[in-house]
Amino acid sequence: MMKRATAFLLVAFAIGMSLGCAWAGAQQQSTGLVVEESQAKVLPEVGIQDLAISPDQQRMVYQGQREGKPLVVVDGVPGPEYEEIWGLAFSPDSKRVAYVAARDGKCRAVIDGVAAGESYERIRGVVFSPDSRRTAFAAERGGRWQVVVDGVAGGACDWVYELTFSPDSQRIAYVAELGDEQCVVLDGTEGARYQRVCNLAFSPNSARLGYEAWRGDKRLMVVDGEEGPAYDRVWGFSFSADGSRVAYAAVRGATWLTVVDGEEGAGVGPPMFSPDGRRMASRLAREGKWAVAVDGAPGRSYDSAWNVVFSPDGARVAYVARKDEGLLLVVNETEWGPYDGFGGDIVFSPDSTRVAATMRHDNKRMVVIDGVAGNEYDRVYPPAFSPDSRHVAYLAERDRTRFLVFDGEESREYRRGYPSEGRLLFGSDGSARFLAIREDEILFVRASLSQK
Fold first, then answer.
1. How many Cβ atoms sit within 10 Å of the Cβ of residue 307?
2. Furthest CA-CA distance within the chain
3. Which residue from 333, 332, 329, 334 is spatially nearest to 344, judged by alpha carbons?
4. pLDDT per residue as tens, the chain (452 positions)
5. Measured between alpha carbons, how far is 283 from 229 in angstroms, rounded to an integer?
6. Could you tell me if 173 and 136 are in contact, meaning their C-beta atoms sit under 8 angstroms apart?
7. How wide is the angle at C-alpha 386 spanned by C-alphas 385 and 392, nearest 5°?
8. Burial of residue 75 (number of CB atoms within 10 Å: 0-12, 13-18, 19+)
9. Would you give the distance in Å from CA 256 to the centre of its chain?
10. Is 148:137 a contact under the CB 8 Å cutoff?
11. DSSP 8-state code for residue 275
């Protein structure tokens, strides 16, 4: 039942590795980039079979075996041995760890090192609430499933889908399968039953819940238990920031529609609210061309347009457009490019004044920052801005090695592969943080520019 790490299987490689995690002395490169490294805590006698990295990129938990018996190691400290282990997970604040363990044919959720609550025949992975204080999981007993929230089991059903906490962590919803029907269970109360229910979404303020429901060959959106009109297809449901507005895309026959606050309008694909909920963007198809409309006002026409993104303050809009044979990055109707392809990422800085995107040229990848293309690499990962918006960093690959690019300066090279997966984030101190592999070491790395 354990999902194995397929990208990079680390088995008993840690002989001779340090069990401490103190940061090594800072290494200043000739470029002025200061890099600090810390070895992950790995036990030499326990080979790694699966692992999880904390959201803050500062902790590691892994599942391995000691003399053939599975166990979990958290920050270098081994836990009890079991017959089987799966579902390693960190809480959003990176402070808590959970997993599921089996012994003598019974499963229990292990939370913060304690096998809490009752045992079950099967348990799916533990879900933490956004504030990291609460837990929930789906468990089976006697062929029936129930959701266990903070150790308290709910009603039984045939299967559980989409177990979800609200953003404020106070509410919980999931889809319950009951025979040939499904319904949403919100805070323990069942809603109406449908052929199928999917795509649950709480409003950002946690006050409202919406989802897609199937009735025969028709699809409808249900918001706060009230059904919307039936369409041939619906998708892309979203709330505004304050939860007062609702938008989604729909199809009726051959007509593509946007539905905003119950009103149908022209548009193709889901409308998008700005982060403050005051503005809206959508794609329009007209006379064989495409345009992005912001607050109802269409922009320039292109052969195609997609990946619309608002800045945090809602004042700027960016998207990718195809014109003739090239791709353009369009920011508030200013065109950058052309490029050969789009890498899938458009990122605004926290203060909304800067923008970065991953683009492609001649089978090489690059990051375009404020309209200026960086160096070309074999691969680039999503860029990130520092909290003060002054710096931008991303991971890149060249000749099967991986390294950091920080304001255009390259770090030393590391080995490519699992577990870093290209993830990078900035800490509150302005340092860029990521995981790296060097020879047989897993390293926590943080980097910043010299202040000298």
1. 15
2. 68
3. 329
4. 333 333 333 333 333 333 334 455 555 554 589 999 998 888 888 878 888 889 988 888 999 999 889 999 998 899 999 999 999 999 999 999 999 999 999 999 999 999 978 999 999 999 999 999 999 999 999 999 999 999 999 999 999 999 999 999 999 999 999 999 999 999 999 999 999 999 999 999 999 999 999 999 999 999 999 999 999 999 999 999 999 999 999 999 999 999 999 999 988 989 999 999 899 999 999 888 999 999 989 999 999 999 999 999 999 999 999 999 899 999 999 999 999 999 989 999 999 999 999 999 999 999 999 999 999 999 999 999 999 999 999 999 999 899 999 999 999 999 876 655 668 999 988 999 998 888 878 889 999 988 65
5. 22
6. no
7. 45
8. middle
9. 29
10. yes
11. T
Around Cβ 438, how many Cβ atoms within 10 Å?
14
* Token output for 198: 């999917």
CB 60 within 8 A of CB 41: yes
Q: What is the DSSP track for 344-405?
A: EEEEE-TTSS-EEEEEEETTEEEEEETTEE---BSEE---EE-TTSS-EEEEEEETTEEEEE
Contacts by 233-236 with C-beta closer than 8 Å and gap 24+?
234/259, 235/199, 235/270, 236/269, 236/270, 236/271
- Amino acid at the residue 241: A
Spatial CA neighbour of 147 closest among 134, 159, 133: 159
Residue 164 · residue 184 · CB < 8 Å? no
AA letter at 180:
D
Q: Which two tokens stand for residue 19?
A: 């069990």
C-alpha separations of 189 from 134, 176, 346, 358 in Å: 19, 11, 40, 45
Q: How much is the pTM?
A: 0.88
SS3 content of the chain, % helix, strand, coil (to 5): 0, 60, 40
